[in-house]
Amino acid sequence: RSAAARRPVHVALQGSRVWSRFIALKAGSDVGGLYFTKTHEWFQDEGSGVGRIGISSVAQRALGEVVFCRLPQEGERFGQMETIATLEAVKTVGEVKSPVYGQVIEVNPRLESEPALVSYAPLTEGWLLRLAFNGKIPRYLQRRHTVPREKIEGILADTAALQSFLLEQLPERRSDDGNVDTNRQETITLSGLRTFERGMVHVAAEAIGLSTASHGSGAGRRLIVSRSPRKEPNQVEEETECMDD
Description:
alpha+beta; 10-stranded mixed beta sheet; 4-stranded mixed beta sheet; 14 strands
């Protein structure tokens, strides 16, 4: 059969001493949440300099049913956005890019006999590989951080725990921190929330100075929580003077 090369969709796959449910949220290896690339791969920071890579649901739908996964060998090194795996579907072939620079330490052993896992569970059991990296999330990924509902469902009804989680994900940036662009709006995306749950997040976020906006429709509707760029005192003074003029 002929295979048409197709660019993959990038996806990628995370607090304070409050409330036992919030602490439980942090337990285990899933400490980084999902970070999605523009090409629809996801990257999950597992901690200790280890990350996991897979494809998004959007990429999966574009590919169709995956019948073969061409994965790298353990020990191979890849640069950021270099092709790290190839997925063959019934009518298409998709290249998967590495969201970070790193070295492969494990591939998903189930995919050799069950490649369709990528089609039916792309964000969970259908993960592709794990790799060692320097532990620093690239800035471009930080702007595309998505947290699925199952990661926070235990704290949705607990306003204090939910606010603590949001503040940890969107900390106030200091202007004297040379590693952070304080002029850029910081955001995280919450996916899979029900209508009333989006309302609870909106109320909790607004109370601590964060803003929210909904995007999409139906099951794909997402809630964007953001912190606006921090205004320095001189900026506030300049704005005040302009208003007086």
